[in-house]
Amino acid sequence: REQNADCVHCVPAVLASFPLCQLTEEDLTQNPLFCKFLATLSHHVDRTGLAVSLKEELEKAERELQTQRLAWLQSESLFRLLQEMIQDHCVRQHHNSTSSEDNKFYETMEQCLLVAQCVRQLDPSSTTGQEQPPLLGLSAKHVLDLMPPEKDVRHMKQRLLAELEIRLKKKCFNILSYYQPDWGNYLSRLPETLESESKRVEALREKEWERATLLQRQTHYYLSELMGCMQILQSLILDYHLKAQKELDKKKVDYLEAKCQIVIRKIRAEMLQLQLDTYTAEKISAHRKIKEKLDAELKAVRAEKQSAESMLSSFEILGQEFEALVQEYSQLRLEIDNKSWALREFSQHSH
C-alpha cells in the first residue's frame, strides 16, 4: 500500500520527466516498482533521455557550434553587405554619373574582395583546418600580388568604416520599422526588441515541442484504444461467424446428401436403361436357349467325368501289374503313331 501511495505521488513527475515514452497513468499505477525506478532514473537523465554528463557535453558542443555560427554569420553578413555596396554603385554608375573618387573607392574594394575570395579558395586551412592541393600550381602569395596599391587600400579602409556604418544603420532601421512602425520613438530599444522576439520564438518552440509530445502520447493512447476495440470487434465477428457457419455447414451437408441421392438414382436409371437397350426380347430368348444347351452339355460332361472317375478307381484296384501294362500299351501306341507318320511322309514324297 505504501508503494502504491508513493507511486501515485510520483506519477505526474515521471510522466513529465519522460514525455517521449509511451506511458500512461494506468501503466505506472499497475507497476509501482517500475514507477519508482523511473522516478529515480529521472534524477540522472533529462526529458530527452540523455544522461547528465552527456547533456553537458552536448550543451558545450552546441555553444561551440553557436559561436562558430555567429562568427560565420558575421563574416557572411559583412561579405554580402560589401557585395551589395558594389552592386548599388554599378547601378548608380549605369544610370547616373559618379565621381572619380567613388569609382576609385569601389574599384579598390571590389579588387580586394576578389583577391580575398581567391586566397580563401586556394588556402582554406585557415577556416576549415584542412589542407588542399594547389590549384593550377597557384598559391595565396601569387594572388596577393594582384592587390591594389597600398595607398589606395589605406584610403579605401578609412572610408569603408563610415560606409559600413551607414549601411548597417539603415538595415537596423528597416528591421525596427518592421516590428515597430513608429521606430523614431523606440530607436534605443532595438536590442531589447530583438532579444524579446528571440525569447518569444524560443518559448513558441518549447510549447510546440510540448504539444508535439502530447500529441504523440495521445496518438499512442488512441491507437491502443483502437486496437482494443478492433480485438473486441474481431471476437464478436468470430463468434457470429462460427454460429452462422455451423448452421451453414449443416444446410450444406443436407444439400450434398440430397444431391448424392439424386445422382445415385440417376446412375441406377441409366444402368437400367442401358440393360434395357442391350438385352432385347430376342437376345434374352437366345441367351436362354444357349444357357439350356450349356447346362445340358455341362450335365453330360459331369456324367462322363463321374464315369471316368469310377473306371479309374476300378483300374487302381488292379495294382502295379496293370500300371505296367498301361505303360507298355502307351509305348506301343506311340511307336505305331510314329511309324504311321513316317509311312505317310514316305508315300507323299514317293508320289
Let me know the number of strands.
0
Q: Helicity level, as a percent range? A: over 70%
Structural class by secondary-structure content: mainly alpha
Give unreliable regions as ranges: none
Total helical segments: 11
Order of helices and strands: HHHHHHHHHHH
| Mean pLDDT metric | 78
Rg over CA atoms, rounded to whole Å, is 60 Å
The best one-word shape is elongated
For the record, give the distance between the C-alpha atoms at the N and C termini, rounded to a whole number. 138 Å
Largest sheet: none
Strand content: under 5%
Protein name: HAUS augmin-like complex, subunit 4
Keywords: Coiled coil
GO molecular function, one term: microtubule minus-end binding
Coiled coil: 284-311
Describe this protein's structure:
The N and C termini lie far apart (138 Å). By secondary structure, the chain is mostly helical. The model has no long low-confidence stretch (mean pLDDT 78). It has helices at residues 2-17, 25-30, 32-41, 52-95, 100-122, 125-128, 140-144, 150-179, 190-278, 281-318, 320-350.
Please give a handful of descriptors for the protein shown.
microtubule minus-end binding, HAUS4_met, 351 residues, 11 helices, elongated, HAUS4, mainly alpha, coiled coil
